[in-house]
Specification:
By secondary structure, the protein is of the alpha+beta class. It is 21% helix and 28% strand. Strands 1, 4, 5, 8, 9, 10, 13 and 16 form an eight-stranded mixed sheet that branches. It has a four-stranded antiparallel sheet with strand order 3-2-6-7. A two-stranded antiparallel ribbon has the order 11-12. Strand 9 and strand 10 (220-221) form a beta hairpin. Helix 1 packs across helix 5 (222-231). The longest helix is centred in the last third of the chain and has 15 residues, at 263-277. It is globular and about 65 Å long. It starts with a helix and ends with a strand.
């Protein structure tokens, strides 16, 4: 699937015409509202195949996980870029983008999925203090255990770490995790995204992005980064990928016994499982409903092309029947929170966005 990054950036910038606040979480929340997603679907629609012998369809799913999971690499006595030894846990990311690609065919009238790939991109959001071209890590604090410094230490080198489900857990769910990447290369797993401190259009995109490397210029737009994720292309002189593939396990249970999974597989399956099973905090919502937003209704923008319309009633499946992709079915048992996405994001919850395309032959 091809996606025009310039059109995507234009759509992203459109969300900030009536910007009220400039905090990084408020600006990030603008990317997670129904009007933006509907227009994004309209942008993607022409790129989907709709032939008699080959059709594609799309689901988009939203979830939130609050200040979790966390990495602890204090045993390694890692120093941040200010030469401070890091002694406290760090949140994995501010947001995450997933892309599932399913291929299949019909056999005796039933769908048979023959292959599915899964991609993940962790996103660390920052607000610049000026309109000058931002540089990773964005932030000049030299305090010990500064959050930005801890994030860069993790995302730029991925030292061996223990994974904690929440900040309140005293014991890790997995220990000595190592996320491998080729020696000398910039890791593709997470990118920094920076927004300006002003309501004006200071840059060509509201979110300028850079790979997780000290001193990297944030010279790529968010549209370019998301397009690179979907098309598996590279960016910049270092030819860094946007995100990386992982093996999705729909039977995953948090803390389960391992059977040869890589640490990158474990991390992403834990994030998705937490989206599925975690409850919203009472400090944000006056309910015990779960964190995954599912659909009560579907808007049919085109045949085989659907948009989940957020509702507050507890429907466990799409009203039009069935599910489009396996990841949508995997998330479907969760109910809808009794408040809007922006409320959750403003209170510090981590948004997880899942794009899932199914391509069927026959």
């Amino acid at each position: 699937m091809n996606l025009d990054s310039e059109k995507l950036d234009k759509l992203i910038n459109k969300q900030y015409v009536d910007l009220v606040k400039t905090s990084e979480l408020h600006q990030l929340s603008k990317l997670f509202n129904p009007s933006f997603i509907k227009e994004l679907l309209e942008l993607i629609r022409p790129e989907l195949a709709n032939r008699k012998s080959y059709k594609q369809s799309l689901d988009i799913i939203f979830c939130w996980i609050d200040k979790r999971p966390l990495a602890d690499f204090s045993k390694q006595r890692v120093k941040d870029h200010n030469n401070n030894i890091i002694t406290k846990k760090v949140e994995i990311a501010d947001a995450a983008f997933y892309f599932f690609n399913e291929n299949g065919h019909y056999q005796n009238g039933q769908e048979q999925i023959t292959h599915g790939s899964s991609l993940s991109l962790l996103f660390q959001a920052k607000r610049s203090t000026s309109v000058k071209a931002p540089v990773v890590p964005v932030g000049k604090s030299k305090a010990k255990n500064n959050s930005t410094a801890k994030e860069l230490a993790l995302l730029s080198s991925w030292p061996k770490f223990d994974l904690y489900k929440t900040s309140g857990n005293k014991s890790p769910i997995y220990v000595d995790m190592e996320i491998a990447y080729p020696n000398g290369e910039v890791p593709p797993f997470a990118w920094f995204g920076v927004c300006p401190p002003t309501k004006d259009e200071a840059w060509k995109s509201r979110w300028m992005c850079g790979p997780s490397k000290l001193g990297s210029m944030c010279e790529h737009t968010l549209g370019q980064v998301l397009t690179a994720l979907l098309t598996r292309s590279t960016l910049g002189i270092d030819r860094v990928h946007s995100g990386e593939e992982f093996n999705f396990d729909p039977t995953w249970a948090s803390g389960q016994k391992l059977n040869g999974e890589s640490s990158w597989d474990i991390l992403n399956n834990e994030i998705l499982f937490q989206c599925k099973e975690s409850h919203l905090p009472k400090s944000i919502f006056t309910t015990e409903t779960k964190r995954c937003v599912t659909a009560k209704e579907i808007i049919h923008l085109d045949k085989g092309f659907r948009f989940a319309l957020f509702k507050t009633r507890n429907y466990l499946q799409y009203s039009c029947g069935g599910y489009n992709t396996k990841i949508a079915e995997y998330m479907s048992e969760n109910t809808v929170p009794n408040s809007f996405y922006e409320t959750a994001l403003h209170d510090g919850a981590m948004p997880v966005v899942i794009f899932s395309i199914k391509s069927m032959e026959g």
